[in-house]
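Reader question, answered in our methods column.
A reader sent in the components of a multi-part assembly and asked whether the whole thing could be modeled at once rather than chain by chain. We filled in our standard form and ran it. Here is what they sent:
COMPLEX SIZE: two components
ENTRIES:
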Amino acid sequence: MVNVALVGTSELIRKQLKTWSRLKDVNVSGIVLTDNEQQSTSLHEYQERVVNSIADLLSLQLDIIDICVPFNERLPYVHDCLKEGIHVFCEVPFTEDEQEILSIVKKYEETGAILYTGNTRFSPEYVDANKHVTEGKIGKPGVIRLSSSAPHPGKGADIFLELGMPEFDWIIWTLGNVERVMAKHVKKKHPNGRLVEYGLITLRLEDQSFAHVELSWATNRTESSFELTGDKGMITYYSKDSQPISMELLSNDANDRLEEDYKDHWKLLQREAVMKSIVSRKPLLPKAEMSIGALQVALAAKKAAMSNQPVLLGRGDLT
Amino acid sequence: MKIGMISFAHMHAYSYAEHLKAHPDADFVAVWDEDSSRGRDVAEKYQCHYFDNLDEFFSEDIDAVIICSENAKHKEHVLKAASNQKHILCEKPIATEVADAVEMIQACERNNVILQVAYPVRFVPAIQQVKDMIQSGRIGEILAVNATNHGQMPGGWFVDKELSGGGSATDHIVHIMDLLRWILKDEVKNVYAEFDTRFYNIDVEDCGVVLIEMDTGVVVSIDPSWSRPKTFPTWGDVTMEIVGSEGKISVDAFKQHSLFYNDHEGKIQQQPWGEDMDKGLVEDFIECIRLGRRPSITGEDGLRTLEVVKAAYMSDQLKQAVNLERVLVNASK
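And here is the structure of the entire assembly that came back:
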C-alpha cells in the first residue's frame, strides 16, 4: 500500500484525486487545501481527510506528497515536504533556477527523499515516438514538429515553462541537446479579462536537426500533436484523431462527457511508475535534475522572444 | 484570345494548358520550349504550334503568354514578352533576384502589359473563405499564424541553384507569404530563418524553419521543407493555424480528398475532389486581360514575397533576425 497525501488548491487536488483513485493499493491519507478550506466539500468522500497543515500530515502514514499548486507556488512546498524525508511528486516547473534544482536533489539525498517530476516520458504515444526515432525508424531527423495546446490557466502562468517544458524535455530526450533557440510570443487580454497567449519556438539541435514547437493557450481544448520527419520516413500523431471513443447523446440535458478520458491516461501511468519506485526502492527515470535541460530551453525561448534574436545554449549532457 | 506558353519546365504548365484548352474564350495556339522534345510533345498533345525560336514565337499572333520556365529564366522571358506587348502570367517566384523583379515590373509598366504572378492557392475556395472570415473580424485581432507548405523533393532543375535560385525555401516560402500579405493586408517587418540539407543528397536546402514578425506585430512561422516522404499520399500541403484574440481558424487547403488504397501500385493516394485552383488562376488571368483591369496578383506581390525569401537566406547566413527593407519600385525607374 502506498500512502499519498495531496497539498494544493481544491481544483487541482480534485483533478489529481481522479487519477490516484484509479490506482490499486493507494491510500489517500491526507489533504491540505491551500486556497479555501470551505472548498473541502467539493472533494466529496475525501473531505474528511482534509487537515490544516503539512505538519498535521506528518502524523499520518505517508509515503509521498503530491504538490498541486500553480507553478510559482510550488518551491516552498517542495522544500517543506522533502526536508521531512517524504517523497514528493511535483509537476515541472517548480523553479526557474537550475542551480536550485541541483541543490534540492543534493540536499535531500541524505534524507532519502526523492523528488519525482511530471513529464511526457510516460505518455505512451511520446514513449513510442521516442523509441522509433532513437531506433532510427525515420532515419536522420530533419524537422521535428510538436504542438501543445490547452485553455489558459490564468494570470501569472508562464507558457514557455508550463506548456513548453514537457515538449522541450521530450526533444532533448529523443534528439539530444539544443544548440540554439529562437521564439516569438504574443499575449492579449480581452476586455472581459480572458487571456489569449501563443508561442512559436524553433530549436536547432546539436545534431543539426530542427525542432518547431507550437504552444497555445488560445483555445478551449487540450490537444497535442507531433510530426517527426527524417530521411527515411515520417511519423505523425494528432490527439484529436486518437480518441477511441466518441459519444453523442440526443437529449439537450444529457452529459456526453466520457468517464474515461484517454488524454489523461499518461498521468495514471506515471503515478503507477512512481508507486512502483517507492515500493521497490528502485530509482525512476527521469530524475528531477534531468528537467534542467528543458528549463534552459524554456528560459532561452523567453529571452529570444523578448530580444527578437536567437539565444545560444551551452554544451552539456542534459539527457 | 490567343495564348502562348513559354516552357513546360515547371510541372504546373500542364495544368494551365488543360484549363486554357477548356476555356471558351481562349485558344492555346503556340508553345516555345528550350527542350525541343518536350515542346513538340506538348504541341502534339494540345494541338498547337511549337517554336524553337523565341523571336519567331513572339511574331505569332498571340495576346498573352504563360511563362513556366525555370526560375532564373523568368526575367529574360518576361522582358521579351513585355517588349513584344504580350500580357504575362509568370510562374512563381517572380525572379531569383530582387533587382531582376524590379526590372521586370518596370518593363511591363512601360509597355503597358499586364504582369500577373502565379499564386494559385489564392483561388482555393477554402482559402478565400478564410480571407473573408478574417477580414470580417470573426476571430478578432489576428495575433499569430503557424503555417506549412510542405512538399516532396521535386528534383530536376529545382535542385540546381543556377536555375532555381535556391531549394525548398525559394520553392515554398513564397506561397505562404503571398497568402498572408493578401489575407492580413500586412507586410513583413523582420525575419529569422535557418535552413539545411537533411533529407536528400542535393546542393540546395531541403528544410528549415522561418519565424517572422509582421508590421502589425503578428508573429508567423513558416515551414517550407521538402519533408514529405516518398510514401506520402500526395505532393505536400498548405496549412495555416491562424490565432486571433477571439478564436482560431485552422485551414488545410487540400483537405478535400478521398483516400485510394491502391493495391495495384502498392501505395495509398490522396484523390482530390475540391475545386481546381489552377483553373481559377487561369480564368482570372484571362478575365483580367479581357476587362483590361489591374491583375489580381501583381508583379509587386511577387516582388514582396521574393524580398522575404532573400531576407530569410541572409538571416540563415548571419544566424540573426534581419529587418526587411522593401524596394520602392517606382523610385527605381
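What stands out: The first strand of chain A starts at residue 2 and ends at 8. Chain A touches chain B through 35 residues (CB under 8 Å).
Send us your own complexes using the same form.
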